[in-house]
């Protein structure tokens, strides 16, 4: 499987630009892809991205995917396992880390005060 990431030696990052709401996510949650790409149809590739939650933003359903996900909570708070109204769940504060193998159910997720998460997604090359 080809690795689809280019060399980048600490380029200037404008964290004020380039943010988009990923398909299927509610308003208040945005991503900025830093490197790579994930081809879920071909089940290959890898992606490194930043995800930010505005204060009070949340998802309403649990989900899983067929690739690995490593998530590093850089700043703020993140709650995992809230209900569809954004209530309850287990809260975490930065710095913190999660590693989710393919098929691991997780979410819904919310942030009370807002957060920034660094995520790395990849398919197992084996």
Radius of gyration: 15 Å
Low-confidence runs of at least 5 consecutive residues: none
State which percent range the strand residues make up.
35-45%
Number of helices, where a helix is a run of at least 4 consecutive DSSP H or I residues = 0
Task: Give the termini distance in whole angstroms.
Answer: 9 Å
Please write the string of helix (H) and strand (E) elements: EEEEEEE
Tally of DSSP β-strands: 7
CATH topology: Jelly Rolls
Description of the molecule:
- The chain is mainly beta.
- It has a single domain, classed as Jelly Rolls (Sandwich).
- Helix content is 0%, strand content 42%.
- It is built from no helices and 7 strands.
- Strands 1, 2, 3, 4, 5, 6 and 7 form a 7-stranded antiparallel beta sheet that branches.
- A hairpin with a 4-residue loop joins strand 1 and strand 2.
- The model has no long low-confidence stretch (mean pLDDT 93).
List the helices and strands and how they pair.
Layout: E1 29-39, E2 44-53, E3 68-80, E4 90-93, E5 96-100, E6 109-110, E7 115-122
Q: What is the structure about, briefly put?
A:
With 126 residues, this protein is mostly beta strands. It has no helices and seven strands. Helix content is 0%, strand content 42%.
Question: What attributes characterize this protein structure?
Answer:
126 residues; mainly beta; Jelly Rolls; 7-stranded antiparallel β-sheet
